[in-house]
Amino acid sequence: MGNSHDTDAALEVERPSGVRVDSLAVSIDGAALLEPFSFDIPAGTAVAITGANGAGKTTLLRVLAGLVPPTAGSAHVGGLPVDERNPAFRRMVAGHIGHTSFARDLTLDEQLTMVGVSWGAEVPGARERASALLDDFGLTYLRTRFAHELSSGQTQMFSLALAIARPFEVLLLDEPEQRLDKERRSQVTGILRGLVAQGTTLLFASHNAKLIDAVSDRTVALTRS
Amino acid sequence: MASDPTLRRLRQLRRDQRAQSKSDLRYTIYVALMVLLIVGVPVIRMAILGLASPEIVAFVVSAAAPAVLSAVTGLLIAALVVLGRIRGPALVDPFRSAIVASNHLPRSQTLLRPFLVSTTQLVGVLVALALVLSAALAVAGAASALSVVVFVAATVLVGILAGIAWLGGQSLPPRSSQRIAAALAAVSLTGAVIPGGLLLTPWGWVALLYPSSGLAPWLALAGLAIAVLAASLVVPKLLDGIRGSELNAQAQRWTSAATFTASADLAGAFEQFRALPTVGRQWRAVQVVPTPILMLARDVIGSLRTPERTILAALSLTVAGFLLASISAVPATVAWAPALLGGVIAFLALGVWSDGFRHAADAAVALPLYGFGVAKEIALHATLPVVGVLVFVGAGALTALAVGASPVSVVVALAFVLFIVTVRVMAATKGQMPLELLTPIPTPGGDFSGALVMMWQADALLLTGVLSLALTTSWLSTPVLLAVIPVAAVIVLAIARHNLANAR
Questions:
Q1: What is the DSSP letter of B279?
Q2: What ranges do the domains of chain A cover?
């Protein structure tokens, strides 16, 4: 039987629920990808999900994103049951889990602008937001590049920028520190802390102790029996 | 024996590799022979008999036939110049490419052999086509034996020129090869329509040597031979001009494509050759206009960032429109040929403007990135291919109308290619092949799973092909066709929707 344990049980509980999971489990043909566990995270909290490889961190994030259905238990995000068919749910949850699909024929600047426009922003406003994001992620000098022209670290930074270019309340990130050097990790840490300070509920899987310490209010450790 | 030790080692490497792959080679020859006997011979026989039918003979002996041959040959050479940038004739496997790219030897020595092999293969294919055409003319009594021999010799010479043009595409800077290809295409089309235009180009000279019962213009053959000799002089320079990075990139790309093909991932294989944008980065793709126009402008600008693809798509759709509309202008017995060719060309051309569909389908299986919703996003990305069909297929179909096609066939051509846009949506949403298809299915004729995999991979193309042929079925009258096409489109879009729902 797997379990989870909170490293900070004294967190306030009267705030609206950000993410709640009850006896959630995922298995395929009897093989457990995620063993049953529960937790309840208030809105505006940053939670790091830790655990060894294969403990189910990515699976948990994919369930919360509505990309994988649970085989047991339930999950709610922002008070809504996880269901990617629900437009309100889709509007609430953003993230970067695994591969990001880039528009191969648009520059970085244009891709970020298009994301904003697709969520209802006016083009000038979306352009401003795109410029700000490129600035935050240190990508301004690459604004007219195409995604295939980026290095792997730059690609990771751009993927994170794309993930937060749209409106959201809950942000799910799978190992945001991947392929980033120390300076870039520090930049990402600052961005994530800023988002949480603005009220974003953040769940991120990570193996990086410094990032976890700097960003998370709470840690959920997944273990396998 | 080569005096340079590096060259000696390279040749030894090739000999060793050949020795290792002897059994593979024997198997390849066996498969090629079986395919030739079972499929090739009946197809060649059918082609010759089809070409020898009275309606076709009337065309191939007509005064227009040499001009058409000249234009087609010129366009083929222009296409080979473009192809050289994707897959040049002087190409070896990635390992030997790395050696060739990094050693001190001139590439006119190390890459000469693969160039000669590729050119010989190209000449072989062209000669086979020339023989089929000549045989049909000879069977119909429209060509003397001597004229056939001269025509085949001319084909060999123009094949060598085409091989050198192909090498030019591989060696010259991209911008130069683009301009050369465009100039070749323009000269070919112009030469085919202006009086005396056939005298201007070597492929025009081939057309002058078109098999007939009269005397062959020997001067044209001599001119071709001189042109080949002159062009051969630049081959070493072109080989030496091939950039090592480009050589390695082509070799890696083809090896990756072969690996994807072997694992039945044709989409992955095609992905290796899809040109990536490198130009127009300062153009503004996102304009302050209403969303549908914004998406059309975004797709147009995005498309223009790979100009060769866009030009190829536009020209191909024009040709497809011409072919599909000309069904009504050719004899009923051969109408299937322009219908099938037109449908397949339209399907392939629309692949260029299906990037939006692919991107939307790809993004749909991850966390939502765009706020449109998948169905709306696909609909917005459909504007460019629909406009492209109306403009370019329309232009081709109207050209066919001017040379004898019926007005109704113009409408059918447009409606059918618009339907192919929906087939492209279905193909984009297909996702990964189910692994169950790889399960062996033993039958007395061998494992049937390979056929299923091929059918899964090519389902959209097969559907297009079958429905293209249906356009020529006499019992499907035009009103019925125009009613059936929208229904088929709705069914295909329903399948796409089902694909997307299952992909999540």
A1: S
A2: 17-221
pLDDT of A12 higher than 60: no
Alpha-helical segments (H) within A50-181: 57-64, 87-92, 108-118, 123-136, 152-163
Tell me what ipTM this predicted complex has: 0.86
Q: How many Å apart are CA A62 and CA A173, to the nearest integer? A: 10
- Who among A114, A119, A146 is closest to B298 (CB)? A114
CA atoms of B183 and B185, how far apart (whole Å)? 5
At B80 the pLDDT is 94
Tally A–B CB contacts below 8 A.
93
Read off the pLDDT of residues A82-104 as tens digits, 9 standing for 90 and up: 988 888 898 899 999 988 889 99
pLDDT in tens, B393-421: 999 999 999 888 899 999 999 999 999 99
User: Would you tell me the crossing angle of helices B336-350 and B307-325 to the nearest 10 degrees?
Assistant: 160
Comparing CA positions, the residue from B466, B341, B326 lying closest to residue B408 is: B326
Residues B231-240: pLDDT tens digits? Answer: 999 999 999 9
By C-alpha distance, the chain A residue nearest B298 is A106
CB A135 within 8 A of CB A114: no
Q: What is the reported pLDDT for B153?
A: 94
Smallest CA–CA distance from A86 into chain B, residue: B373
**CB contact at 8 A, B148 and B67:** no
Domain A17-221 fold: Rossmann fold (3.40.50)
Task: Tell me which chain B residues have a C-beta less than 8 angstroms from the C-beta of A101.
Answer: 359, 362-363, 366, 369
CB burial string B379-415: b at 16+ within 10 A, e below: bbbbbbbeebbeebbbebbbbbbeeebbeebbebbbb
User: Which residues in chain B are closer than 8 Å to A87, comparing Cβ atoms?
Assistant: 373
What is the pLDDT averaged over residues A112-122? 95
Estimate to the nearest angstrom the gap between the alpha carbon of B342 and the chain centroid. 12
pLDDT under 70: residue ranges of chain B: 1-3, 10, 13-25, 51-52, 215-216, 262-267, 445, 474-475, 504
Alpha-carbon distance of B322 to B141, in angstroms, equals 30
Q: How many C-beta neighbours within 10 Å does residue B261 have?
A: 15
Is the dihedral angle over the CA atoms B216, B220, B222, B225 positive or is it negative? negative
Question: What is the model's pLDDT at position A62?
Answer: 94
Q: Alpha-carbon distance B79 to B128, whole Å?
A: 19
